[in-house]
Write a structure and sequence with these properties.
Length: 240
């Protein structure tokens, strides 16, 4: 019986030592977690500050662009081609790692060419519409005009309704059927036969006037990649 008691005491000591070791490791892990959380908050703050700067710069660029376009109209100059890149993402969780998200990223390089002051000025991947702007100083009736999506050998063409008119400096938006927008002429139209504008790798959008002449062309080529994001990353949100 004495041997049994000695064995029990020995096991109790081992148990206490194991508990102490566990508490020490837990405290260390908690310290590491606190340190990582502070680093993450600092990074998120930097990211937020950069986004604020980006928004401000985008607004300034848009303002200068309007001034430039107005000057082009005044001097009767042909607008120059525009180019750039658009980045969008779709994120989703992984079954084997709930705290981590996999994000599919699409970067779209594009060029816009125009020989008219009524032209394609915006293609929104997020809200799925094409914006057409009238930079002249008079109303532009869109009756007889068309806009078409060309993808490979497939072409889907939309003919503007008679009520569609773009006022001076105004923009008209043509939404896809999948955008969930309301058809509200003259400045908000829905292309019911089109599921989405930006759902192809190579995309061409062509705007023609009532005489059938091409007045503006948008060309884009998309490249996709995959990123892995940890839980709490602000980029882990659906953008498209």
């Amino acid at each position: 019986e004495k041997k049994l008691q000695d064995r029990i005491k020995e096991l109790e000591k081992l148990l206490k030592k194991a508990e102490d070791d566990a508490r020490e490791k837990d405290a260390k892990h908690q310290t590491d977690i606190d340190k990582l959380e502070k680093q993450m908050k600092a990074l998120l703050k930097d990211y937020s500050d950069l986004m604020d700067v980006k928004v401000t710069l985008d607004m300034e660029i848009a303002a200068y662009r309007k001034l430039l376009q107005a000057e082009e109209v005044r001097l009767n100059l042909t607008p120059s081609p525009k180019s750039g890149r658009v980045r969008s993402a779709l994120s989703f969780g992984e079954a084997d790692a709930p705290s981590r998200k996999r994000q599919r990223v699409m970067e779209e390089s594009f060029t816009t060419e125009t020989n008219s002051h009524v032209s394609i000025e915006e293609v929104s991947i997020e809200n799925d519409y094409v914006g057409i702007t009238n930079m002249t100083e008079k109303d532009q009736p869109m009756k007889g005009w068309t806009i078409a999506k060309v993808s490979g050998e497939e072409t889907l063409e939309y003919k503007f309704p008679a009520k569609a008119v773009i006022g001076p400096g105004q923009s008209l938006k043509v939404y896809s059927a999948g955008a969930g927008a309301t058809h509200n002429p003259p400045l908000s139209l829905v292309f019911k036969k089109l599921d989405a504008w930006s759902n192809t790798v190579d995309l061409v959008i062509v705007l023609k006037n009532a005489e059938g002449e091409v007045v503006s062309t948008y060309k884009a080529k998309a490249e996709t990649s995959t990123e892995y994001l940890e839980e709490g990353d602000q980029r882990a949100c659906s953008l498209m």
